[in-house]
Amino acid sequence: MTDDRIVNAGAQPEDEDPHFTFRPERLDEMIGQDDVRDQLAVFIAAARERKEALEHALLVGPKGLGKTTLGNVIANELGVGFKRTGGQVLERLELSQILTSLEPGDVLFIDEIHRVNIRVQEILYPAMEDFTIDLVIGQGGPGARAVHVPLPKFTLIGATTKEGLISGPLRDRFGVHVRLNFYSPEDLGKIIDRDAGFLKVEVEPEGREEISRRARGTPRIAKRYLRRIRDYALIRGEGVVTRDIAARTLDMLGVDPLGLDEMDRRIMRAIVDRGGFAGLNTIAAAVSEDERTIEDTYEPYLIQIGFLSRTSRGRSLTAKAYRHIGLTPPPVEPQDSLF
Ligand code: ADE
């Protein structure tokens, strides 16, 4: 795979960051997500055996868990090219150009596929289902004509943080559905060890534990923390990532023992300050952050650890969350209790 075969429109900035490296290239280099790896290994092997393209695959899961990495790994395992674009920026013309440039079997990865607009979806449907595209030849006016162009069989990999926002017809066109879940601290620990090896930094088991406990089940975060702790260890320590060095760095970054940062705490306080229930737009205004970032970056983990719930009256906090920020939980209201 060469760089000119990669389309990068709509990529996240950190994806281009040369520091965000050491991504696995093959399935057996990937740590964790065992069910996902087992399933994909079978479907990929079967596609290879039949010399066919893999069926279109939908990857669902919170940010930072490696959906793009997995897309790239799938292409590597299939031995095909990988092109990537983002649903939020995708226009009809760009999609047509990408589709007509695909080689047989190639993987086309569309990030945030729930954001692909309706007019672009109209091109996507026949491309996914019949491997065809209708192109208009000529500049418009009387000379223009529509031609029905066959496409090579390819694999569309759609990634999304919000499966519920994908239209039924689009979702149904994916034959393989894969869900990535937050990583266990043990798996994050192994990922930290792997990166520490590449970075040539010594990490003590207790240091690794401290990072994995505070990394919100997310490799992207664990990797970033490791790099900051390595800096801290070099300047304020002996170059070794001990528990003390890891804890001091993370404290300095405002990351608490559960991995929550200043923005998480502000979101929680915004809910408390509004009487225990607040809508997403109210929270966004209160903390000066955009709604999408709150929904995609902060809420999934607060929900996962049982701190936040989405109710018909807005976002609310659990008793655990109140206690975590040093407040007494409000008495349970009759409509919120089970009985
Ligand atoms: N880096 C990011 N995600 C990873 C994973 N699942 N396994 C190994 N290294 C990783």
Give the topology, please.
Layout: H1 13-16, H2 34-49, E1 57-60, H3 67-78, E2 82-86, H4 92-100, E3 107-111, H5 118-130, E4 132-137, E5 145-150, E6 155-160, H6 168-172, E7 176-179, H7 185-199, H8 205-214, H9 219-236, H10 243-252, H11 262-273, H12 280-287, H13 291-304, E8 308-311, E9 314-317, H14 319-324
Helix pairs in contact: 4-5, 7-8, 7-9, 8-10, 9-10, 11-12
The protein binds adenine.
Indicate the mean pLDDT: 91
Largest sheet: 5 strands, parallel
| Cross-sheet strand order for the largest sheet | 2-3-6-1-7
Rg on CA atoms, Å: 23 Å
> How far apart lie the N and C ends?
60 Å
Spans of 5+ residues with little confidence (pLDDT < 50)? Answer: 1-12
The shape is globular
Distinct small molecules: adenine
Proportion of strand residues: 5-15%
Question: In a few lines, what is going on in this structure?
Answer:
The chain is of the alpha/beta class and 339 residues long.
How does this model look, in words?
This protein is of the alpha/beta class and 339 residues long. It is built from 14 helices and nine strands. The protein has helices spanning 13-16, 34-49, 67-78, 92-100, 118-130, 168-172, 185-199, 205-214, 219-236, 243-252, 262-273, 280-287, 291-304, 319-324, and strands at residues 57-60, 82-86, 107-111, 132-137, 145-150, 155-160, 176-179, 308-311, 314-317. The strands form three sheets. Strands 2-3-6-1-7 form a five-stranded parallel sheet, covered by helices on one side. A two-stranded antiparallel ribbon has the order 4-5. Helix 9 packs across helix 10 (243-252) and helix 11 (262-273) crosses helix 12 (280-287). The longest helix has 18 residues, at 219-236. The protein is globular and about 70 Å long. The structure holds adenine (ADE).
